[in-house]
Amino acid sequence: MIELVFESEFAGADDAAVVAAIEENNRAEAVAGARRLAAIAELARRRVDDDDERANWVFDGWASAAAEVAAAMTVGHRRASGQMRIAVAGDGGEGGHATLRDRLPRVAALYWQGAINSRVVSTITWRTQLVDDGEALALIDAALADSAARWGTLSEQKLDDAIDARIDRFDPDAVRRTESSTRSRDFSIGDLDDPAGVTSVWGRLLATDAAVLKGRIAAMVAAVCDADPRSAGERRADAVSALLAGSDKLGCACGSDTCPAVGARPASSVVVHVIAEQQAVAAATPSPDDSAAKPPATPSAALIVGGTVLPAAVLKEVIGGGATVTPIGRPANDPEPRYRPSAGLAQFVRMRDLFCRAPGCDVSADRCDVDHTTPYPIGPTHASNLKCLCRLCRRRHNVELIIR
C-alpha cells in the first residue's frame, strides 16, 4: 500500500512545526529556482553566439536553447524563452551574454540563499535591463540587495516602484523609466484563476485613451433607467461588450416595453466556434415560443478555441446575443488529393486540437498551421495525419526531420 505522504507527513506536527516547514520549503524552492536559472544561463552561454552566422537564421541558437529548456521544464517555448531572459540578464559584450550573477551579483547571492523569490528576481532583471553603466549598476545592485528580501509581499505596481526608485537614484538618465513608460502599456485578457464563464481583463493604456474610454462607459451606463436590475459593475462590463459589438448604446435590462433606453440588443460582431454536443446547442438556442412549457434541458458545457470552459448558461446568453454558431462537419474517410487541406478539414483539425500539439505549447489552434505529421505526399492529407503546430514549433519539427 502506497503511503499518502502529501496528506500524512505533517499530520502529527504542531502548528509551529507546520509553519516552520512552510518557511523552510519556501526558501528551498527559491534556492532550486536559482540553481535552475544558473543551469539555463550556462546552456545559453554554450548555445547562443551573436557572432555566429546562424544567429541570423529563423531558428537560431536562442530558439534552439529555448527548445531544450522547454523540453526539460515541460513548458511552452515562450515561457522557456522568458526564463532564459531572466537567467541571461543583459548583454555581456563581444557577442556574449552576461548572467544574473555577472550583472547583479548581490541580488543573485540573495536568490541563491533563498532570501528572495522568483517573482522579485524576475522583476528586478526586467526593470534593470537597460542599465548599461557598470558603476551605476553596481550601486543599484547594492541598493536592491539591501531591501529586496522585504519585497515579497509587495503588489506588482509597488514592486515596480520600489525597484525604479533605486534605479533613478543612481542612473541619472532614468533609462528604464524614460524609455518604457509608454512601452509598458498592455492589455491582457484571461487569468488562470478566472471562474468558469467569465474572463478577467486588465491593462495599462495611455492616459488620454483611458480618459476617453472611462467617459464613454460612464455615459453608456448613465443612460439606462433606475429600474435596471444589474449592478454598477455588471453595467460597466456590458457597456464594454456593447462597444466591442460596434454600439455606443447600452440597452436597459428593466424589461419594460415603454422604457426609452431598452433599445435593440446589437448583433454580435464576433464569430465564436463552439465545440459542444448538439444537445447543448439546441438548449442554448432561443425557442420560437418562449412561453411554451417544457422541462429545462441540461446541456453540457462547451469549449472555445484556446480551451476556455463556457458553461451552458453562458453559452445560451452568447448565442442569444447574436453569436454565429458554425457546425463542424466530420471529415471524409478518404484523404484529400492535395497538400493543402480544404477549409472544412482544416477547421475540423483546429477544433479537435484546440492548441498547438507540441508538448508544453499553449498557442491556440486558430493561430497555428495545420501540419502533416508524416510529410506529404508519403503521408496523406487526412485528419489522422494532420495536427496543429504554431509557426515556431513547426519550424523546430522540420529541423528535427532534416537532422534525422
Explain what the structure shows:
A hairpin with a 2-residue loop joins β1 (90-93) and β2 (96-98). This protein has helices at residues 5-8, 15-47, 61-73, 77-87, 100-103, 105-113, 118-127, 134-147, 156-170, 175-180, 207-222, 232-244, 278-284, 312-320, 343-353, 391-403; strands at 90-93, 96-98, 186-189, 201-204, 274-275, 302-304, 309-310, 369-372, 386-389. It contains 16 helices and nine strands. Among the domains are: 21-176, no CATH class; 270-287 and 297-327, no CATH class; 343-403, no CATH class. 22% of the residues are buried. By secondary structure, the chain is mostly helical.
In which range does the helix fraction lie?
40-55%
**Average of per-residue pLDDT values:** 79
Number of beta-strand segments: 9
Major sheet size, sense and barrel closure = 3 strands, antiparallel
Helix-strand topology string: HHHHEEHHHHHHEEHHEHEEHHEEH
The N- and C-terminal alpha carbons lie at a distance of: 44 Å
**Rg computed from alpha carbons, rounded to a whole number of angstroms:** 27 Å
Basic shape: globular
Structural class: mainly alpha
Helical stretch tally: 16
How much of the sequence lies in strands comes to: 5-15%
Q: Biggest sheet: strands side by side, in what order?
A: 5-6-7
Low-confidence stretches: 91-96, 290-299
In short:
This protein is mostly helical and 404 residues long.
Question: What secondary-structure arrangement, pairings included, does this model have?
Answer:
Layout: H1 5-8, H2 15-47, H3 61-73, H4 77-87, E1 90-93, E2 96-98, H5 100-103, H6 105-113, H7 118-127, H8 134-147, H9 156-170, H10 175-180, E3 186-189, E4 201-204, H11 207-222, H12 232-244, E5 274-275, H13 278-284, E6 302-304, E7 309-310, H14 312-320, H15 343-353, E8 369-372, E9 386-389, H16 391-403
